[in-house]
């Protein structure tokens, strides 16, 4: 197989509302990365993966559109990538089944996420949670993906993908699959919880006041930031180890105002925490207002979103069908005429 074009696949599950952390850590930097046009990029809304946990149908529908809308509102140009919904490309499920037959149960049982979520109660866990790493492998391999941006919790799944691909390459020839590698996600920063800065900002903690949701109104954003946990040192300094709450606020302000933490500290040196919190709140509001407005516009009339996703699915299927046909032929399937 000739040297493949650098290709990235990134998938986002449509479950729950995104946070300020998602925006500053993923949506915004990834949109900027795409504009450089250095890779082929397939951006997938992973609705098949979402249903490994029971979903409310109406919420799943709305969240699927929302993921695409937030990315576009954050600056992603659909012309810079292939943006599509996983279930709109049936080749994912088809190749997923084939790869399942080349995946060993012992391999799946060793996956950390499965062990963490099942907690020994195997009979009460849906089979989808157990089997989804082979579907994830299909997601990756369909597009001759060379790089997969994943966090530490997903690196193991990319390694399993490589194992499955290597197994099939050994059986059917080295041109069956391109071997991908896990890479560090394109990210600007890791935004921390406002009430517990020792952990990341997460939508699962949305009710505790430590998480700013992208749909939050100005008053809610301001209230959460002004109530953010800091410390009793009463000195504005950038010291993540000893002043994690303050460092988190400084990082948020730096990201929203296109500055470094050092520049923010210089501005507020000798000041109390109140003025800093006020500046953070104002910067976050000003950053999110245009994003929220564009998101609301896209979600109010989904015709544009539907057209973008349809175009993306068509483009994705062109590549996915080639890969699936190649694999099916090697395995011995009779292809339809």
Give a quick summary of the entry.
It contains 13 helices and 5 strands.
Write up what this structure looks like.
The chain has helices at 20-34, 47-50, 57-73, 91-100, 105-109, 112-118, 127-141, 152-172, 218-226, 244-256, 261-268, 273-300, 303-331; strands spanning 7-12, 40-45, 82-85, 147-149, 181-183. By secondary structure, the protein is mostly helical. It folds into 2 domains: 7-189 and 302-331, HUPs (Rossmann fold, 3-Layer(aba) Sandwich); 203-297, Tyrosyl-Transfer RNA Synthetase (Orthogonal Bundle). The chain has a 3-stranded parallel β-sheet. Helix 10 (244-256) crosses helix 12. The longest helix has 29 residues, at 303-331.
> Major sheet, described briefly?
3 strands, parallel
Query: What is the architecture of the largest domain at the second tier of CATH?
Result: 3-Layer(aba) Sandwich
- Number of extended strands: 5
What proportion of the residues form beta strands (DSSP E)? 5-15%
How much is the radius of gyration in Å?
A: 22 Å
Which whole number gives the mean pLDDT? 91
- Please tally the helical runs, counting DSSP H or I stretches of 4 or more residues: 13
Spatial shape: elongated
Unreliable spans are none
- Under CATH, the topology of the largest domain can be stated as Rossmann fold
Using the coordinates above, name the CATH class of the largest domain: Alpha Beta
Assembly context of the chains: single chain
